[in-house]
Amino acid sequence: MTPAGPDRRPTLADVAARAGVSTALASIVMREAPGASATTRERVRRAAEEIGYRPDSRARLLRSSRSRLLGVVFGVQHAFHGDLVSGLYAAAERVGYELALSAVTPGRDERRAVAGLLSDRCEALVLLGPHSPTAALADLAARLPVVVVARSVRSAAVDVVRTADAEGMHLAVDHLVALGRRDVVHVDGGRAPGAAERRRGFREAARRHGLEARVVAGGLTEDDGAAAARALLAGPLPTAVTVFNDRCALGVLDELRRAGRAVPGEVAVVGYDDSRIARLATVDLTSVAQDVAQLTTLAVGRAVARLDGTPVERRELVVPPRLVVRSTTASPR
Amino acid sequence: MTPAGPDRRPTLADVAARAGVSTALASIVMREAPGASATTRERVRRAAEEIGYRPDSRARLLRSSRSRLLGVVFGVQHAFHGDLVSGLYAAAERVGYELALSAVTPGRDERRAVAGLLSDRCEALVLLGPHSPTAALADLAARLPVVVVARSVRSAAVDVVRTADAEGMHLAVDHLVALGRRDVVHVDGGRAPGAAERRRGFREAARRHGLEARVVAGGLTEDDGAAAARALLAGPLPTAVTVFNDRCALGVLDELRRAGRAVPGEVAVVGYDDSRIARLATVDLTSVAQDVAQLTTLAVGRAVARLDGTPVERRELVVPPRLVVRSTTASPR
DNA sequence: GCCTCCTTCTAGAACGTTCTAGGCCAGGGA
DNA sequence: TCCCTGGCCTAGAACGTTCTAGAAGGAGGC
């Protein structure tokens, strides 16, 4: 019978009492720290097992000034953020950190998400494609290390890890031109994180090839893509289209096919993100892939470097993208 | 100059010192508890503001035995889980609880996700479509209240909140029959959470209408749906298809259209989940909608009831689904 | 004057861990 | 004999909160 009620969560003191040692020694055993004999270790471990002891990470963190906890803010809507979160878990584990997740939802904005993490005593924050203004991010960075992923921020206070989106568009345009497609249009992502950079890359590459750099309004969703495709269908059809992201590209594809236009026969289409959608057999979309493993490893690495006080050379880390060619691009029929 | 280094996180004692009161009183003010004069409140609040004080939720939770923290395990891949998480945040906030998120990723299984939440001192767990065997869930439920969402579990130990999936299939089949479609096939979800129930519902409804209850193998993804459609195209085409979920339905749709079959002219298609995909103008899929707001409100409510010791009548709460009719179902051409 | 009651406040003990400082004992060198 | 040294262990103080018990001071009733 435990002293303070039957359903009390077992504590280290309970383990120690049962094993007949001090709590300090029990702590040593549980942490696998040096300073206990083999027999005692065994005894303490068995006691812990028997009463179902689980360390209370909050008490643990309270005591040690370091929490080894990285806060992550992600958008619950974005499939790509899901991939990034997976990568972050793996990267954090490799360097002995834990993750605290906080989601941005339609009813919970970034401020709320960040506030939650701050009171959880995270040592640093990793923000996935944040929408907060630069000033707000800089304010935050005055409190603790902040790493922004997949968006570029013009501030000396925050670290940025992102894909070389302009280069990704170069790859896409070069690929299309090599296929003999010279009338290329870009379907834009508006004010979404990364859109400006991708637009810029498109324009640079088009100019380099001596092409007219035509850009039409698009967006993040399939419906935005469909609308853009309808706009394109109203005029003379280009021979190739680069699209802000895969979801939008899907809308473009669908609308083109509905209008009876052959893809890639008449029009080639390139997406961005290499999401699961792009990889589906029924879609099989050529797309610019972001290197998730690299992005997440660098993001965690940068956060840890800041915490350890390791000198850091550049604020911005840029990861090269990769073009994944599938069946929506080919030479004209 | 703070005593213990310049970048120490400000604590309640700092606030109290600056305001010239005891920490206990500062605590009272920060918690908005009764027992402080208006002028003192104002003074303490200003001091907190000035030094940028943020309560340390871990210390707070350590002290009070209640953590008011609900652990949520979700799959980072599932768009539907994203919707549920959004709803859970809102529902938890309404009853004064916080959420701790723990993701299941390709490299992080449910055991890991749950273990993390347990050491975070969550009072109860909400599991979204868990894959763990019933026995493991029951073990867990012996430690703390467990609510499983969107899957049915045959165990008296855990609470379940789910959609009446069988009824959803009744709605779908009734709708198709009312449209004059009597040759209906179900594309199955295999061992996915909810699949068995949906299959059962389909069979019941078909039998009720005196139809042959034909079921073909499908799955969760677009590719599974495409494969199922190819199987259907190999024989005489049914006049209607119900599909395990929207993603799979999308594959079915795509493959049917590629084969030149008119939807809904020749074949009507009904999906399940009413996901964002189904709502897209380019897809516009008739689908069975799950009531996310209701599911999440009930899940949180049930967890809280267990914690408060409120007597609970049934272990399983079943929420009625709703049929959303769009353009993939109509009378035969 | 004394008692009670209220409001406003404070000291100090929790909470469950880790860490610091030190105790005790055996072994070994002088 | 004495003093180190090293291995194993413990007491007790942190960590930043909240909570309990109670003090101080005034108002009011007798």
From TrEMBL, chains A, B:
Residues 10-64 form the HTH lacI-type domain. Keywords: DNA-binding, Transcription, Transcription regulation. GO terms for molecular function: DNA-binding transcription factor activity; transcription cis-regulatory region binding. It comes from the Bacteria. CDD domains: HTH_LacI (cd01392), PBP1_LacI_sugar_binding-like (cd06267). PROSITE patterns: HTH_LACI_2. Pfam families: LacI, Peripla_BP_3. This is Transcriptional regulator, LacI family.
